[in-house]
Amino acid sequence: MLSFRRSILAASLLAALSPAAFAQSTTGSIYGQVDGGRGDVVRVTSDTGVTREVPVDERGRYSAAQLPLGTYAVALVHEGAVTKSRDDVTLRVGSGVEVSFVAAEATDLGGVDVRANALPSIDVSTVDSRTVVTSQQLAKLPLGRSSEAIALLAPGAVNNSGSYTSATGNSLVSFGGSAASENAYYVNGFNTTDPLRGFGGISLPYGAIEQEEVFTGGYSAQYGRSDGGVINVVGKRGTNEWHAGAQLIWEPNGLRADGKNSYYTNGLPPQPVAGRLFQLNSASTRTSTTASLYGGGPLVKDKLYIFAAAEVERQTGAVANDVTQATPYRSYRYQLPRWYTKLDWNINDSNIVEVTGASDKTERSGTIYSYDYADGHRGPRLSGANNEKFGGDVYTAKYTGYLTDNLTISAQYGKMRTNNYVSPSGYDENAVYIDDAQFQNPALTGGVPRTSGQTVTSLSNPGRRNETTNTRFDVHYTLGDHAITLGIDNQQARAFDQGTATSGPGYSWDYQQGDPALPISTGLGVDAPGNYPGGEEGYYVIRGVSSSLATVRSSQRAQYVEDAWQVSDRWLLTLGLRNDQFTNYNANGDQYIKQTSPQWAPRLGFSWDVNGDASFKVYGNAGRYYLALPLNPALNAAGGALSTSQYFTYQGIAPDGQPTGLTAIAPGVPVSANNNFGQLPDPKTVAARGMKPENQDEYILGFTKTFGPEWIYGAKLTYRKLRNAIDDYCDIQRIVEKGQSLGLNIDTAQANSCYLFNPGQANTFVLLDTAGNHVDVPITNGELGFDRLKRSYYSLELLLEHPFDGTWYARANYVFSRSYGNTEGQLRSDLNQTAASTSEDWDNAYIMEHTNGPQSNDHTHQFKLFGYWQIAPEWLVSGNVSIVSGTPRHCLGYYGPDHEDPGKYGGHYHYCDGEPSPPGTQGRTPWIRQIDLGVSWRPGFAEGKLAFNANVFNVLNEQRALQQYPYSEAGPGLPEPQFGVITQRQAPRYGRLSVSYDF
């Protein structure tokens, strides 16, 4: 019997690991062993009418690969007659299902044998690390209604530590210590990742999600452009039976606990608005109502199907902003419409066409009021809030052709368009924005901050948007014990009219205070304020001007090949190779990065069925993953960005908050930390010569084993090492001086603001000489003043799972991990910087001193438990528990014991009170415990079609700190009152009620 079982598994591994089953991860496969021989066939018929007949080989094996997800009937056909069959075989995305027919395990039912074989407890057909959540589980678990919230069920996936959100407001996820911008997002095989910064993708209506697949490592060569994780959503499709339903969800403010207020913890500013109070979270309110509909069925039975779903969420409420904002209190109205439609056309049993349309948008409006903190009431109306529209639409078409029993092809083309519309309501174009009014000299205001009433900080083009097209072509061929897949994966992206400019007359005023005897910025040459009239107590003001508006694009192409090789009955190897090419263009349409030489990304994996009965699996993989540069750098490092500051002392403040009696502080002209004077640099000088893309190597070794008939346990080790990154270097003078030392006649007025380069290694920069010629300036890493690039992640993951047995299901996992080095990756979460690949990191040598340590997405301990229990035929209870240790706290200040500013970046250096302050030396944020519970009632009188649900999120209502303000100095040598203030917390406890009806 054991050798027979081995034969089954040999066939199963070959079929299930067929890359055709994984292609774009929208399909699955069915495989097995039968009592038959050459000439017999196995017929698989889906609930959408798709029928395929595959031959049985001489050893009784068969495989039907790249099947659309759905429910299938499987039958063994001998001489035209069905001899054995099995119904209700449900596919899981990217996986295989074994359906075998053997005489010893069959039951004779009137001449037709039905083998009700259970699925193997462990899927020995996969080598990657993934979590698949089905629509049935989504309907039972208490979860946030977004792809990102679902992804948090996966081990090693955590909420990002920088409060980053997608365009439609979903909190982004960090996988394996990576930055929140380093993931890839797919819907029905189409890459919906935000092309500008990598911040999320399109979400489907919650009820339209058939399955969500979350890859946390080891994924196929068919996936690329990610060194974090992959979130792949597969939407529902119509079947031969009509189904429809509706749901109403209500999250009233009455079921929401009050938010906890935040307070100054490091003294007070010169003009405190409300004493120690920093943010009145208890005054914020929120009510949400969501209505959803779905329906699907055959337009032409067995031929043409449709599924459509729509939901509209409406949020109303108010937010009390922190006391430093010009918008103290904002009431809001949000509309979040989403829809999804899918058409499936079975032209015949060998040709299938799928067309998908989806939309995910957010529309925001509101009103801004003053707020009386003394009596806790809203004050008079100040202005309307911005009218905003974010998100967009995606349309795709896919063809699948089963050309022969061994050859399958698929082709997909799609287009996504997302908007980024912001239009100020009641905007006063003549009013100047006043920032940090709490730092005005109180002797000139009587202790009451003066502002202009301008609530708009910057302006953007209302027509700004992004467009992405994605073309894929995949070929799958089975040759003996090899299942070979190859294909192309091309993507074009364009950002139209992106960027912002200063509001009002084109400048703003920012009030500050420092030590009157210390220079404001040694790097920029800005003198001490005490040397000028009005600055005797260190008060000064900054006139800021900024603008960065451009249309830019990129081209990303890839080719891959992969072989799933069944070496023996128990051993399967996957051998993959991917080659990526990236090209980026500036506002003039000129190339500034061309990375088209081969960038090989090998992917190797194995699966060992130790006992030959799918009870004990050992697996592992090793791979390299490349990440393309987003469009964002074309707006700053490669763009003609303008960002200048001019410093003044003042002797008066007008009623509208503008300073009077100005005296310019030396140098007396506008300065720019990064040479952002609005000049578009020569595209040949933007990037270091031969610059390589960001890439990461990953190694995984793990096992999964059954424990009795009802439990599965396992463990996995993961190691990730960031081999290369792209960022910007902005100490232009150092490179100019190196060129001069080589005898080159360098033009000292280079137009670049920064250079894109590979940090932590030697680079060759391209500069202009005085004759306008391009010259190469090689410079070592030591000459740049850097240590080598470091970001390493390692983890131990433990798993315990009880599969659903008709009564209850539970899954628990624990992850011990470290993400350690001197860079987080593309982002700086502690500073909430959103400029992917152009953060502060690596801008100069000084900013990178004392940066080695645990990085912002480092969570040493993660424990997750979720599941549900059918306590009675009509009642189900569910829970989702997450306990995660905190992230490193940061303390940033001016440079060294003399509180200098050699890098021109103010108080952003890794020094605290003049002492070195690497990440983690200030301790960590608290552990975060999140307990969510749910209960569902399906009354018997409605035959299970009617359901009432109640959920409670954050049952303990702990509201612990997620992030604290990191800057310790308001000016050189002057303590920052806001240092340590809690700026982000857990959401308060809230309740959700819903009712649904399916018919």
Summarize this entry quickly.
The protein is mainly beta and 999 residues long.
Shape descriptor? globular
Structural class: mainly beta
Amount of beta strand: over 45%
Q: What's the overall average pLDDT, rounded?
A: 92
In which range does the helix fraction lie? under 10%
Seen as an oligomer or otherwise, the chain set is single chain
Give the secondary structure arrangement, pairings included:
Blueprint: H1 2-16, H2 19-22, E1 27-33, E2 41-46, E3 51-55, E4 61-68, E5 71-78, E6 81-90, E7 96-98, E8 107-109, E9 112-114, E10 129-134, H3 135-138, H4 147-151, E11 157-159, E12 173-175, E13 184-187, E14 190-191, E15 209-217, E16 230-235, E17 243-251, E18 262-263, E19 277-279, E20 285-300, E21 304-320, E22 329-348, E23 351-372, E24 377-384, E25 387-402, E26 407-423, E27 433-435, H5 442-445, E28 458-459, E29 465-479, E30 482-498, E31 501-502, E32 508-513, E33 539-547, E34 550-566, E35 571-585, E36 591-595, E37 600-609, E38 616-627, E39 642-649, E40 652-653, E41 659-660, E42 663-664, E43 694-707, E44 711-724, E45 727-729, H6 732-741, E46 755-757, E47 763-768, E48 774-779, H7 781-784, E49 791-802, E50 808-821, E51 853-854, E52 861-872, E53 875-884, E54 911-912, E55 915-916, E56 928-937, E57 946-953, E58 961-964, E59 969-971, E60 974-975, E61 982-985, E62 990-998
Parallel strand pairs: 1-7, 6-9, 13-16, 27-32
Antiparallel strand pairs: 1-4, 2-3, 2-5, 5-6, 8-9, 10-15, 11-12, 13-14, 15-16, 17-20, 17-62, 18-19, 20-21, 21-22, 22-23, 23-24, 23-25, 25-26, 26-29, 28-31, 29-30, 30-34, 32-33, 33-39, 34-35, 35-36, 35-37, 37-38, 38-43, 39-42, 40-41, 43-44, 44-49, 45-46, 47-48, 49-50, 50-51, 50-52, 52-53, 53-56, ...
